[in-house]
Amino acid sequence: MFRDGARKSAWQEEIKRFSSMALNSDHINFDVIVAGGGITGISTALHLQKLGKKCLLIEASNIGFGTTGGTTAHLNTFFDTTFDEAISKYGEDQAKLLAEVGKDAIAIIQNNIASHEIDCDFETKQGYVFALDDAQNKKLEKMVEGSEKVGVSMEFCKGISFPVPFVSVAMVPDQAQFHPVKYIKKLAEAFISSGGIVLEDCICISHSEDDSGITVKTSQGEFKAQNLVYATHTPPGVNILNMMTAPYRSYAIAFEIKDNKYSEDLMYDLEDPYHYYRTHIVNGQKLLIAGGEDHKTGHEQDTGVCFSNLENYVRKYFDVGAAAYSWSSQYYESVDGLPFIGKLPGSNGNIFTATGFMGNGMIFGTISSQIIGDLIINKENKYENLFDPRRVRPISGFSDFVKENATSAFDFIKDKLFMTKIDSLAEIKDGEAKVVKYEGESYAVYKESSDKIHVLKSTCPHTRCEVRWNSAEISWDCPCHGSRFSVNGRLLTAPSTQDLQRIKMEDQ
Ligand SMILES: Cc1cc2nc3c(=O)[nH]c(=O)nc-3n(C[C@H](O)[C@H](O)[C@H](O)COP(=O)(O)OP(=O)(O)OC[C@H]3O[C@@H](n4cnc5c(N)ncnc54)[C@H](O)[C@@H]3O)c2cc1C
């Protein structure tokens, strides 16, 4: 298992293990410990190591195991929070600052590619956003107006041919795409060559702070550092950020291409949730990668249906061949539509977080490396205030957002009571999973075959919500904060730091 799901992403074959060097007494104290081996953690660790800091990167599984191994890797200068929304929520000046992020982050990626000679299929592209009806057209008009106000080029255009029947389309120049795992793999190698240490299969469990610095408790022992960066979405354990971000699942399918009638550019519709397309050559074969069908984690009864919906949507318009890869992964939305990058709320100012990137984490993860790098070396950064996780924005919707996350556990308790009608494990068919009540306790049961049944306690160790079955990735997902577990209970996705409790069946 090299990714946090049972399905294979188009990038996954590039994931490799980084053999960790044997640690000795020199490797107990660090300037910076970075937890999380995705684009955010690796970019930040490399940047800080190059600034002369002695860094340790710890990763719970392997480099690229999380969302970076399951992304679709569009590099955009416009975001899920549109500029017209940003203007109305935060004002024009802040929206103008937000508008600089895409360009800055793409420049950092290009600079990394050039200075470390990274072959990661980077290509500059145009982006096209299209409206399928009048309501979407109104939305697109606002997007174009908002972009103009903040100085990001986005203009209505004509003469574009694309098989999806749109009523209007706007073009955004200077977008890009790349192979995310080829990119981070080389960044990790550059980090190691500059003296950094990578420790895989090392989960950060907790931290404590005192005058002498930060002690980080991990599955491979304790380490000390002056600074700690959580590039793990939310930090492990229970934290205020659990209430300010919500986990979402998103789906992608890479289809074999039959002819050359596909746009070479990056295409986005304005449905809710939206669909998007791009092409990529993987193992010498050109594929059409389509994405979308997002939903809150644990809120979809049958996640397999999300793949069918996406596949049907694509096949309705495109003459594509077989699905070479199909996968889903997890991203986090923030309560106010802006990421949280900077000092961790409640810390003394030496612990950092970077999350709430929505579908733009290649960009926000990259810019995090510079923001957090500057904060650590006490240098001003123009984005520091905009993305400060300690910001308090009493905007409408906050209490609903928190309530929505909190009620999800209650909804499931009702489902669970319904499950009591299942009075025996024998009712579960091979390849099926269910949460069942048995002698007053609740269990997550997956029947791999008639003689192999995996039984777990169904309560997530993080905040004791009840997990739900994800049939598409063969995992148990927590609807409250997005922790995920394999069928044998192994932790796949934080913020839990513990596995689901395994139950040994007497007849197994
Ligand atoms: C299907 C999909 C498509 C997307 N497409 C795009 C796109 O086109 N463009 C774009 O910009 N963004 C996109 N995104 C978003 C983007 O992929 C993510 O925001 C980004 O990959 C997050 O990177 P990260 O490094 O912060 O997190 P991750 O890549 O998830 O890395 C976090 C790492 O931390 C490790 N970890 C977790 N807890 C611990 C712990 N306690 N101790 C040690 N290690 C730990 C995990 O194992 C993981 O490897 C997409 C997201 C999805 C789901």
TrEMBL record:
InterPro entries: FAD-dep_OxRdtase, FAD/NAD-bd_sf, Rieske_2Fe-2S, Rieske_2Fe-2S_sf. Residues 420-508 form the Rieske domain. SUPFAM superfamilies: FAD/NAD(P)-binding domain (SSF51905), ISP domain (SSF50022). The keyword ATP-binding does not apply. Keywords: 2Fe-2S, Iron, Iron-sulfur, Metal-binding. PANTHER family: RIESKE 2FE-2S IRON-SULFUR PROTEIN YHFW-RELATED, SARCOSINE DEHYDROGENASE-RELATED. This is Rieske domain-containing protein. It comes from Chryseobacterium taihuense. The lineage of its organism: Bacteria, Pseudomonadati, Bacteroidota, Flavobacteriia, Flavobacteriales.
